[in-house]
Structures are given as structure tokens and as C-alpha cells.
Amino acid sequence: MKIARLITAILVSIFLFNTTYVLSDNNNDFSKNRVEQARSIFKQIEKGNWSLALKKSKKINNKMLSDLIYWLYLNKKRIMQIFMIIKILLLKILIFQINLICNIYRNTK
Fold it and tell me: What is the pTM of this model?
């Protein structure tokens, strides 16, 4: 989970740096209103409200931002799926070890 947060922080930092760079070039791709909307989207992500974040990202009409939010959403789902697979495998290994210990104990009697 820490790796996912680190990746999210790096991507958010890159996005905000890019936003600041675009604003400093006097390019009107991002208005202050859009920057505030982007910040509110990332706050929704931090709260875990992905559906609202995805809806808001589509309303901004910025392809880069909506793709980033969607990629983060898919990546989060994949990480959770991998985590569940690992959890199931660890439980199976634990059950196997308990059965092995029980069989060894039974054979020693």
C-alpha cells in the first residue's frame, strides 16, 4: 500500500509541476479554476471517492488529467487484486503448514 501511495504522490507532483509550468508560460490551458478543480479531484481520491473523482475529471475537459485519474483508478484496482491473491496464497500456505504439523503429530503417536 505504501508503494501505491508513493506512486500516487509522484504522479500528483508531476501533474502539479506541469500545471505550474503551464501557468507560468501564460498558456491558458489551465485557469485557476481548473487548478482548484484538479486539487478537489485529488482530495476526493485521498478520501477514496473514486467515482466522484472520475466524474469531475471528465467535466474539466482535460484529456491528460482524466487519463491520469483513470490510470490511477485502474492501478489501484490492480494493486488490490494482487493484494487479495497474495493474501489467499498466504492463507493456503498457512493451512498447508498446519495440516503438515498435524500429520507429523499424528504419525508420532
Answer: 0.48
